[in-house]
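Notebook entry, structure prediction.
Reason for the run: the old model in the group folder had no record of what sequence produced it. Starting over properly, with the input documented here first.
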Amino acid sequence: AAAAALKQLPAASPALRDPAAFDAIDACLETELPKLLPRRERGDEPGGDAAFRASLAARLELISAAVGRSPVLTIRLRAVRRLADGAVSRAKGLASVPASEGDLLADLAAAVCRAGVLAALLGPLAHEEVLRRAAPLFALLREQDASAAQLEPLWASCAFKPAAVAQQAAVLLRDAVGSGPRCNALRGGLLEAMADCCAAHGDCSVVGAAPSLATIAPAFASSPAPLAHRFTLLLVRLLASESLPAATAAATTATLR
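New structure, fully documented this time:
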């Protein structure tokens, strides 16, 4: 019920305009919701994984609302810190305890996606510093075998967001697709997403993402030949665009080499 209510939280809410109100609500969710669990589920450890799970959905809805709808940058930064340095770090600690039930890290990654946190991070209020601090979240998604569909908004941000946001999105995208054989399927899916974006928006999407491609390139340089060749073709298509600025063309040529 708390999660459903927070999903509809308006931008005018004090929780999204007053940092102190945001802090108070988040603290209340974290401490009070676990108390609603039956004793047999709560267990003897107040900070255990049952308590963590009890408040997770509601806290993620609050965080999603904050990063996606709060006009106050301080609140957006606090929200992503609560997620990246708080929830992700705590889940990793709890998951290392033998008594932990289920796959807590996989459940957290799935809950983050259900709450729309990724879309919120990359929405109209996307900010480069908020994205930078979200790096542990994207690392978690990579560790939990993120899909190309989950990472596609990062590529769209490279193409259509302001330069500072696009560059930070490119760094996250490069790190998210990783290296090594385990990530080949993810890189292949990402190339498909890039192709779909180009088909939907034309060369403007490729040209817009041009400054980010040099950042992403190392993830594909060590890929198997078919993937590396497909990325090379993307760069060639970019160089063939008549709307590519001269300075960007020079940088793209350097990346291609």
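Summary: The chain has a mean pLDDT of 84.
The old model has been moved to the deprecated folder.
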